[in-house]
């Protein structure tokens, strides 16, 4: 199982009035980790989109456990939690520089035709992605 590790420095604009990271910014960091994981596997979202396929989020579940703060470096760990040829679930763990677990969770995605939003089987449309996902899922 391949896990991508991406470092992010918390910027001031990502914090709220309490001086901690605003909850929605963790979703952005998950997207950064997910994109990097896909690149580690040898692919790019843009290539998929050029072929008329997009991959919307169908569900996201994040558990907020400890606040990340301005100026800290956080580590976003991302992996393929589940994959069935149509739906992909990515797993995430975001830790601060002290190793404290700030957020953990998952996001589910399905590939769809960009015009019709009808599901697209990854196995048929992108066999190389399918093979990589099968090989690297948890």
Automatic annotation (TrEMBL):
UniProt entry keywords in alphabetical sequence: Hydrolase
Q: Name one GO molecular function term.
A: fatty acyl-CoA hydrolase activity
Q: Can you tell me where the transmembrane regions are?
A: none
Matching entries from InterPro entries are given as: 4-hydroxybenzoyl-CoA_TE (IPR050563), HotDog_dom_sf (IPR029069), YbgC/YbaW (IPR006684)
Which CDD domains does the record associate with it? 4HBT
Task: Note the Gene3D superfamilies from the entry.
Answer: Hotdog Thioesterase
**Family to which this protein belongs:** Belongs to the 4-hydroxybenzoyl-CoA thioesterase family.
Name-wise, this protein is: Acyl-CoA thioester hydrolase
Annotated organism of origin: Salipaludibacillus aurantiacus
